[in-house]
């Protein structure tokens, strides 16, 4: 735990703005990409996702959303206010335009930024992303995960002792994991590792159930080129979320995968190609 806390504290910066505070980290050179992490994440998960989905040739600007790691939870932790902080960060970094890549629960604020700041948004990429309110009734699997997240030790113990069960809870089935090649298994293993330490991520994770994504009608006004990538067998964020995005965002592209689960770890090579081709057309 000491090593994990040292890793996350040494790897980031905190920007204080008139709209609040935001934690961020920058890695690489090239096309600037604003990385928006999913549930249980933070800026470190954003960097991992950027390295995995994009590879070299990109400047990864990874943030921690409200309530994750060094970004405090605010009274008005809405997607609109989160998008304002993204804009503040880009202004601070003197970056005029970015590609925005939102993963899972990072989808709503990624979309909100592209909607509110189209002049700053070159392209939008949504990976296994939430598009609709998940409902007032919290699934039992989410309640179990939230309980585990109360304690750094509990999370460590669970992934050491009941690892396969925990992967199932976060949308990576045992069947998907067992069929992965060595490199793709390393990605999943590192994703679990990068959820250490867990307790500083819990306030943001608990808040995910309250996030109200943009309406379908508002999505229809989006002018930013959009790529949607999602697996049909995703049990955590179902494929209907991708269909909702694709239905309402004009001229969006949908890359649908028959399998891969929530993390789509079995499709990483294909994902990189889809994104590369999409950005080559966009830029």
From TrEMBL:
Question: Residues in domain AB hydrolase-1?
Answer: 32-262
Q: Matching InterPro entries, A to Z?
A: AB_hydrolase, AB_hydrolase_1, AB_hydrolase_fold
Q: Which Gene3D superfamilies match?
A: alpha/beta hydrolase
Name the lineage: Bacteria, Bacillati, Bacillota, Desulfuribacillia, Desulfuribacillales
Query: What protein does this entry describe?
Result: AB hydrolase-1 domain-containing protein
The family database entries (Pfam families) matched by this protein are listed as: Abhydrolase_1
């Amino acid at each position: 735990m000491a090593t994990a806390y040292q890793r996350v504290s040494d790897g980031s910066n905190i920007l204080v703005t008139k709209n609040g505070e935001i934690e961020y980290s920058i890695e690489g050179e090239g096309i600037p990409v604003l990385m928006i992490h999913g549930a249980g994440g933070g800026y470190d998960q954003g960097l991992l996702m950027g390295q995995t989905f994009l590879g070299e040739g990109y400047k990864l600007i990874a943030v921690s959303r409200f309530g994750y790691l060094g970004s405090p939870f605010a009274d008005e932790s809405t997607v609109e206010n989160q998008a304002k902080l993204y804009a503040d960060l880009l202004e601070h970094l003197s970056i005029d335009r970015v590609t925005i890549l939102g993963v899972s629960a990072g989808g709503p604020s990624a979309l909100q930024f592209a909607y509110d700041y189209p002049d700053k948004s070159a392209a939008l990429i949504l990976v296994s992303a939430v598009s609709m309110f998940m409902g007032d009734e919290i699934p039992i699997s989410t309640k179990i995960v939230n309980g585990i997240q109360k304690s750094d030790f509990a999370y460590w113990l669970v992934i050491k002792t009941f690892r396969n069960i925990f992967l199932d809870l976060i949308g990576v089935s045992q069947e998907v994991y067992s069929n992965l090649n060595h490199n793709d298994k390393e990605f999943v293993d590192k994703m679990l590792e990068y959820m250490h330490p867990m307790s500083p991520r819990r306030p943001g994770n608990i808040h995910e159930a309250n996030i109200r994504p943009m309406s379908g009608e508002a999505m229809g006004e989006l002018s930013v080129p959009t790529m949607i990538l999602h697996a049909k067998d995703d049990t955590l964020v179902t494929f209907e979320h991708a269909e909702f995005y694709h239905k309402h965002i004009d001229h969006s592209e949908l890359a649908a995968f028959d399998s891969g689960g929530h993390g789509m770890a079995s499709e990483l090579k294909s994902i990189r190609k889809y994104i590369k081709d999409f950005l080559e057309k966009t830029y």
